[in-house]
Amino acid sequence: MILRRLIEVASGESFADSIHREVCGPLELSRTAVIAARSDLQDLTIGYSILVSTDDSPVDVRPRYDPRWVATGVIASTASEIARFYHCLFTGTLLTAHLLREMCTVVQAHPFHPGFVRPCYGLGLIADPDSPYGPIYGHGGAGPGYSASALHFGNTGSEALTVGLLSNTENHAALESMTLAAGEELMKQR
Predict the structure, then answer these.
(1) Could you write out the DSSP letters of every residue in 95-113?
(2) What pTM value is reported for the model?
(3) pLDDT exceeds 90 at position 92
(4) Are 137 and 100 in contact (CB under 8 A)?
């Protein structure tokens, strides 16, 4: 929330305009945007949620969820554009080498994170620097009706791989496990 406000103050423009100018435009992410109002949700795939249901049955979240409830901001995208974002981030297209090193400087996290050898956190990242497939960096997120997970395997170059998965239900832990399993399987095939 503080970072969002700092971006707006420093840039003199809205968070949405800054994200478009600094990230979406340069990386050619034409299907990624800040979702600011319920009307912005209508073009998205239906997200099914029991969190906003009145009877614990899954309902279409789009007419019931207000993205302004999330003070940090809601960004919608496609799996391929999320993977492109992370791939560009970790292969040096988006940040300078110095800033990327700072972002990837990690500290040990909770001793157990399913599938991770040494779970760590960096600046806005989950990480496993001791993975047998090289360092893994990424992040995920979830909210009513949607889950996302993206992981980047390896550092840079031709051996780097980025996997992004989306779900239109609230199953973040399962989706993260699937992302890790898919990346590991693809890395084995290299």
Answers:
(1) S-HHHHHHHT--EE--S--
(2) 0.89
(3) no
(4) no
